[in-house]
Amino acid sequence: MSTPLSNRATTTPTLIAEVLRGAIESGELEPGQPLRQEELATRFKVSRIPVRDALKQLETEGLVVIYPNRGAFVADLNPKEILEVYEIRILLEVDALRRALPKLSPLILDRAEAILEQMEREANPVQWSELDDTFHTALYLPAERPKLLELIGQQRTVVNRFYFLNQPLAGSIKQCHLEHRQLLEACRQGNFDNARAALESHLESAAQTVAQNAQQREQNRIQQLRNTLRKKI
């Protein structure tokens, strides 16, 4: 995980949640992995109370699920749930783009293009994902709808960690780079219909990739269980 809390100035549920969130988003903590309060309290050198509060915070973000009498687990999503999240993202992000487009100045668009250029050079999946968020946020920020952007950020956080499952980075982003360029060009033209079509196509493509990755991961898990059972027979 990230820097231990014992090395930080303050130990709080927010800081614990920050460390766990980073580990979940990077894939260090995998979907379905148990998050035992006792182990986390020992790791962070705190009591169970701030750990419990941190897990509840992550539950509200959709990153953790807590079951009565079973404990907390890193949230997993099946393909149907992933597609639903992307349907929500399309609704929210198209609205943000509609509001922002008239206010997208050449300077803002140039900054967005600079982010794309950085993304196209980035080989680290976690860093690439952060740049992806930064690019989209740059296009939506002029909408001046902070609550809307907060909702968009929450939905992204739920699904971003599934994007690179089961496939190499290079194979995941080639098409994505092209779609980003098409979206940016439509924004430069100030054509909302084209920009909306580009954004919807981009998110629908991402939804299929993420859903397929989740399905493949589940198939791999089932195969591993079968192999384990065969060894025991």
Automatic annotation (TrEMBL):
Assigned keywords, A-Z: DNA-binding, Transcription, Transcription regulation
One Pfam family from the UniProt entry? FCD
Give the matching SMART domains: FCD, HTH_GNTR
HTH gntR-type domain sequence ranges:
10-77
* GO MF entry, a single one: DNA-binding transcription factor activity
Note the InterPro entries from the entry.
Answer: GntR_C (IPR011711), TF_FadR/GntR_C (IPR008920), Tscrpt_reg_HTH_GntR (IPR000524), WH-like_DNA-bd_sf (IPR036388), WH_DNA-bd_sf (IPR036390)
Organism superkingdom:
Bacteria
Q: What is this protein called?
A: HTH gntR-type domain-containing protein
> What is the organism of origin for this protein?
Scytonema hofmannii PCC 7110
